[in-house]
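Inverse folding, one chain.
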C-alpha cells in the first residue's frame, strides 16, 4: 500500500510542477514535434476537393457566423 501512496504522491507533485510552470510562463501546451506542418503537410487529407459532409459543415459554420454578425443583441 505504501508503494501506491508514494506513486500517487509523485504523480501529484509532477502535475503540480507542470501547473506552476504553466502559470508562470503562460504558454499553451504544445507537442515537441510540431505536428504535420513540420514535415510539409498542410492539412490532414490531400483531397483536391472537400467531401460533401465537410462542405455542409463549412456552410453551416458560415451561416452561424453571419447570423451572429447580424444579431441585434
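Residues assigned per position:
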Amino acid at each position: 500500500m505504501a508503494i501506491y501512496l508514494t506513486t500517487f504522491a509523485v504523480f501529484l507533485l509532477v502535475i503540480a510542477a507542470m501547473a506552476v510552470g504553466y502559470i508562470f510562463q503562460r504558454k499553451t501546451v504544445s507537442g515537441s514535434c510540431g505536428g504535420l506542418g513540420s514535415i510539409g503537410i498542410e492539412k490532414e487529407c490531400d483531397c483536391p476537393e472537400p467531401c460533401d459532409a465537410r462542405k455542409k459543415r463549412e456552410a453551416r459554420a458560415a451561416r452561424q457566423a453571419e447570423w451572429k454578425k447580424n444579431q441585434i443583441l
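The first helix runs from residue 2 to 25. The helical segments are 2-25, 52-69.
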